Amino acid sequence: MSASDPWLIVGLGNPGHRYARNRHNVGAHVIDDLATRHRVTLGSHKGGASAARIHVPGPGGIPAVLAVPTSFMNVSGPPVRDLANFYKIPAERIVVIHDELDIDFGRIRLKRGGGEGGHNGLRSITASLGTKDYHRVRVGIGRPPGRMDAADFVLRDFDRQEVPEIAVSVVEAGDAVELLVGEGLLAAQQRFHAPGPV
């Protein structure tokens, strides 16, 4: 692998206006933010996704493909696999951005490999790629209140008071993606896993 080899950066969510502001769609929001900062518009891709090419800041500019599957969350895997095959991108150069119940609200965490934590989008991607060895940028959405079912909670919109904070987290998650691609996982973890404000 060389610095000129492309990365695939995927944000997870459910399609359609009904789900657009759900907690489960925060990964897709990060892709929207990255598209805006790179002045690109995602277009339809035959792999079952909306996608656009960018260059992430780094030596010579690092090529990457931004993408959001147009399928529902629990079948995100086939579009990710098809994009990876089309652009000839191995799993270790795939970044999946997703919501995470087990991380405090608004916090950003990164890892490569590991379990899916009950996240159906990740389960589908792992099954389709045949490996867990891809990067994840996880955006904390907190735990459901009381006895609310987790599946119901992730399909709720952010509360009005949460919207400004999650907007900041979306930008930070985009920064984390760029740092991961440009400088590596450890550099991104050292910045975004530090205690206190990041």
In DSSP terms, counting alpha (H) and pi (I) runs of 4 or more, how many helices? 6
Class derived from helix and strand content:
alpha/beta
- Strand line-up across the major sheet: 2-3-4-1-5-7-6
Give, in order, the helices and strands. Answer: EHEEEHEEHEHHH
Rg, nearest Å: 15 Å
Return the average pLDDT rounded to an integer. Answer: 90
**Stretches with pLDDT under 50, minimum 5 residues:** none
Name the shape in a single word.
globular
Termini separation (Å)? 31 Å
What about the largest sheet? Answer: 7 strands, mixed
What share of residues is helical? 25-40%
- Give the number of DSSP strands: 7
Beta percentage is 15-25%
Describe the 3D structure.
The longest helix is centred in the last third of the chain and has 21 residues, at 163-183. The protein is an alpha/beta fold and 198 residues long. 34% of the residues lie in helices and 21% in strands. A hairpin with a 3-residue loop joins strand 2 and strand 3. Helix 1 crosses helix 5 and helix 5 (163-183) runs antiparallel to helix 6. The chain has six helices and seven strands, in the order E-H-E-E-E-H-E-E-H-E-H-H-H.
